[in-house]
Amino acid sequence: MAFREINAKMIEATVAPGQRLFSQRGAMLAYRGEVSFTPNTAGGQGGIMSMIGRRVADEDTPLMTVEGSGTVLFGHGGHHIQVIRLTGDTLYVEADRLLAFEGTLRQGTMFLGSQGGVMGMVRGQVSGQGLFTTTLQGHGAVAVMAHGGVVEIPITPQRPVHVDPQAYVAHHGEVRNKLSAALGWRDMVGRGSGEAFQLELSGSGAVYVQASEEKL
Q1: 20-24 and 98-102: which strand pairing?
Q2: In Å, how far are 25, 66, 120 from 131, measured between CA atoms?
Q3: Which of 2, 5, 179, 211 would be 123's cystine partner, CB 3.0–4.6 Å?
């Protein structure tokens, strides 16, 4: 596995010949060895459709291709970092939360309307995600960013999980999700609009929740 957690806000990546990593531009803090950083201007591994999806979603999270032989320290904005290991399934995560990921993973873009129809699009507006989200599929590791730390909550067929959309970071596995109204005491005392909805995730997998309702 390419990533090693240094502390809550920094990771070290091992770069080996014949392999490559992708990272958010500006996330490199220091490196040792013969390592090159090349701007990725072709829409990442998802090709032209990934690039179109990112443009429609008005995302501006350019990537760097990292290659060579050595080690690299990554961090960005003092955000907390969570390393997620995929074993063949798919991670759904916002592009601006991606700090770095291994080149063994296939990157793509998914229209939120394909998961929940109109309510899927409403979810994107409520959570600040927009109409598209990024997918990473295969075997490899991903480093994502969050405010205040992240907790991983297992999702099982017997125990679905309800999440505040503004605290949602990512999820993976064979998971269905839908947005539902959740009017309650928080709305009565004047809290923000986020608590008026819950994101319900069911199936088999895990969801990652940050200790904050603040977006990156």
Answers
A1: antiparallel
A2: 23, 29, 8
A3: 179
| DSSP E strand boundaries for the chain | 3-7, 10-15, 20-24, 28-40, 63-74, 80-93, 98-102, 106-111, 132-146, 150-155, 161-163, 168-181, 197-210
Compute the distance between CA of residue 14 and CA of residue 149 in angstroms, rounded to an integer.
24
For CA atoms 15, 19, 24, 25, the dihedral sign is positive
Q: Which residues, 6+ apart, have CB-to-CB distance to 88 below 8 Å? A: 138, 139
Q: What is the largest CA-CA distance in the chain?
A: 58
CB neighbour burial string for 153-167, b if at least 16 within 10 angstroms, e if fewer:
eebeeeebbebbbbb
